[in-house]
């Protein structure tokens, strides 16, 4: 099975963070996103805590009603809500002019 490109749009502590990972499905994408946070650390020291939460998640992200290939994942970090929207995205090679 082929990996898909997933775009994460994350809202946390007043900041908006966007990144992309490749994975088989949205649940695996969440774990790949956690790995990428450990390296890129866009949220500073909190990135490690967020990555841990992504790895500890047993349930897959929640599909959004009425939309195809869009999920939501939330967690609480030190009493603050983190909201991540996950979109399976066409890669550049799949976009036709």
TrEMBL record:
Name the UniProt record assigns to this protein: Uncharacterized protein
Organism: Sphingomonas crocodyli
Highest classification ranks of the organism: Bacteria, Pseudomonadati, Pseudomonadota, Alphaproteobacteria, Sphingomonadales
């Amino acid at each position: 099975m082929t990996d898909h490109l997933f775009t994460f749009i994350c809202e946390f502590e007043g900041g908006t963070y966007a990144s992309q990972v490749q994975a088989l499905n949205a649940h695996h994408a969440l774990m790949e996103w956690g790995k990428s946070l450990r390296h890129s650390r866009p949220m500073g020291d909190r990135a490690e805590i967020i990555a841990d939460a992504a790895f500890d998640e047993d349930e897959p992200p929640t599909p959004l009603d009425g939309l195809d290939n869009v999920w939501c994942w939330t967690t609480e970090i030190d009493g603050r809500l983190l909201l991540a929207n996950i979109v399976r995205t066409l890669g550049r090679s799949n976009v036709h002019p």
